[in-house]
């Protein structure tokens, strides 16, 4: 499996930042970087990452199935995550989640028909002091109200 020249350079730098025998530490960042380019963690991607790190593919797959930020099916160009853990729930995160589902016409880990937006309910973003929290790709939004959520989504639709 080949990647863009930019990603190949990034992966090489990542792998070389760990001494031999410790390259397994590069697994999660490598999966994140490759997922961003490929769109999801495919069986071929699992094989490739395992080969590059020097571990059995089953160990890569164990990590992929454990971490919720790694996806075996493509998510939208804009992946919207709404936290519904306890701190966000105390600030109406559950109502925000319901609003997000209604606004987007999507449920948990569903993707819009045009592939532009996906929606996911997540457990914790580590933003408890700024609840409720929403993440779009790698951008965090804090103290999100229904109105602020609508503004975020409307701004994404303008980018399409």
How would you describe what is shown here?
There is one protein chain. The chain folds into 2 domains: 62 residues, NADH-quinone oxidoreductase subunit E (Arc Repressor Mutant, subunit A), CATH 1.10.10; 82 residues, Glutaredoxin. It is built from 7 helices and 5 strands. Strand 4 and strand 5 form a beta hairpin. Helix 2 packs antiparallel against helix 3. It is elongated and about 50 Å long. The two termini are 29 Å apart.
Q: Using the alpha-carbon principal axes, give the shape.
A: elongated
Q: Specify the CATH class of the largest domain.
A: Alpha Beta
- End-to-end distance: 29 Å
Q: Give the strand order, joined by hyphens, for the main sheet.
A: 2-3-1-4-5
**How much β-strand is present in the residues?**
5-15%
| Low-pLDDT residue spans | none
Find the CATH superfamily of the largest domain: Glutaredoxin
Secondary-structure element string: HHHHEHHEEEEH
Question: Got a strand count?
Answer: 5
Q: Number of folding domains?
A: 2
How big is the Rg? Answer: 17 Å
Which class of secondary structure composition applies to the elements?
alpha+beta
Number of helices: 7
């Amino acid at each position: 499996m080949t990647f863009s020249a930019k990603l190949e350079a990034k992966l090489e730098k990542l792998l070389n930042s760990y001494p031999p025998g410790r390259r397994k530490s590069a697994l999660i960042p490598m999966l994140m970087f490759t997922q961003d380019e490929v769109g999801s963690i495919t069986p071929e991607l699992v094989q490739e990452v395992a080969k590059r790190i020097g571990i059995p593919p089953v160990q890569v797959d164990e990590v992929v199935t454990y971490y919720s930020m790694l996806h075996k099916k493509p998510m939208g160009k804009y992946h919207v995550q709404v936290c519904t853990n306890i701190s966000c729930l105390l600030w109406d995160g559950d109502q925000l989640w319901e609003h997000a589902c209604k606004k987007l016409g999507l449920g948990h880990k569903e993707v819009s028909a045009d592939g532009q937006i996906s929606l996911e309910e997540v457990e914790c973003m580590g933003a408890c002091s700024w609840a409720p929290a929403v993440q779009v790709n790698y951008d965090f939004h804090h103290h999100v109200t229904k109105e602020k959520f609508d503004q975020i989504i409307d701004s994404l639709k303008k980018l399409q």
